[in-house]
């Protein structure tokens, strides 16, 4: 189930789609927090799942991940991965006591929901696909356990991922969040087709 | 993910961060052979390409287990001396909608058990289910260690029958069972 080798142009298009999605996500987060949120998208990669798990960072590190499945025309999911230091930082912005782990995960689910839902909505609107984000689920565990389970649990047992590394800055507070669009290669093909860069004729 | 490996002699096989996936270790203590597979999904049938080929046999319980036995025997293990140790199959995210009540972790565990039964390989110990990720380390002498997120490492199985020293972890609600 290897991911097709995308051309540089296709990769740029995926990066641009990701940028649009992340832009909208970050505007929405800014509105929630009442602060200026800046977001940059330094890298976008389309990977197969095993490579995506590896690319996300040390497998055994404890992180918090939030997953939003899509409902509708596209069986995909968005996965957001927060390091524990970012959980503390972002939680503090929402007034969460860092010692209260349950509240912190709940706050991350809310932040993940806002970021993920807006990201998906923007992406689906650009691509003209009728799909909506479902309810978020947040968990704290080993990175590889969370990422691999999100992949294996999704409806289509998705085989490809678009990995977007983002730097989020909330009024000077720097966070690094990994956005992962979990999708089948067919769905990535649909995204590319929607911008006129499909592989198949 | 979806990989499998075998070792004879001093090697250690390791799978880091098993969630709903199941790490299946096959050990032959006497010959000092161990093999480990990282099963992601229970059934290869929906994932077969045209012509029925499976691109990644190590990923599915039904295709990984026969291959794992073959690899262990290839490293010198006795076919009838093989014992299995199962780790993982936790319930993490429940993303499937609709009637599919059983979670992927649970289905992985039962598919692995079925495959082992068909291959007549007894299960010596297991640490499955629950809601936490696990890392498994398998030594060629048959020692199997398990670690949960933020926790220490425990010995799930020591080499040799009847010398299982599984200790339960208070933080993990998983089922810990040994049958030696």
What report would you give on this structure?
The complex is a heterodimer of chains A (about 200) and B (about 180). Helices cover about 45% and strands about 30% of the residues of chain A. Chain A is an alpha+beta fold and about 200 residues long. In chain A, strands 1, 2, 3, 4, 5, 6 and 7 form a seven-stranded antiparallel beta sheet that branches. Chain A is globular, with a radius of gyration of 16 Å. By secondary structure, chain B is an alpha+beta fold. Chain B has one domain: 60s Ribosomal Protein L30, Chain: A, CATH 3.30.1330.200. Chain B has helices at about 60-75, 105-120; strands at about 5-10, 10-20, 20-30, 35-40, 85-90, 125-130, 135-140, 145-150, 155, 175-180. Chain B has a six-stranded mixed beta sheet with strand order 1-4-3-5-6-10, covered by helices on one side. In chain B, helix 1 (about 60-75) crosses helix 2 (about 105-120). Chain B is globular and about 40 Å long. Chain B starts with a strand and ends with a strand. The model of chain B is unreliable at about 160-180 (pLDDT under 50). The chains are: A alpha+beta (about 200), B alpha+beta (about 180). The interface of A and B includes residues 53 and 147 of A. Chain A: This is Chemotaxis protein CheC. Chain A: InterPro entries: CheC (IPR007597), CheC-like_sf (IPR028976), CheZ_family_phosphatases (IPR050992). Chain A: Keywords: Chemotaxis, Hydrolase. Chain A: Pfam families: CheC.
